[in-house]
Give the backbone structure.
Amino acid sequence: MNWKPHSIKQEAVLFSDKRFVILACGIQFGKTAAGAIRMKMEMHRYTDPLDNFLIVAPTYKLLQQSTLPPFLRAMEGCGEYSKSDSTFKMNGGGTC
């Protein structure tokens, strides 16, 4: 996936060295895309097979329709998604 941050603030979110990063802004800023890329970066940083990651959304519908598709596009080729148990297993790494 070839993706480029569209603003300095979005780039700051991606490359922050903080453990927790909050991106609170208006609609159409790119929060979902930035979150997917940030998760991919973290999953490549922590590669122990026992490492676990969590993606959350306010509702199941929002998770399925808005959050999960960009994450799966970002992670294409990095592992396998299991619909039956809603998990993404990294190639040689952890589980999200």
Observations:
- The chain is about 40% helix and 10% strand.
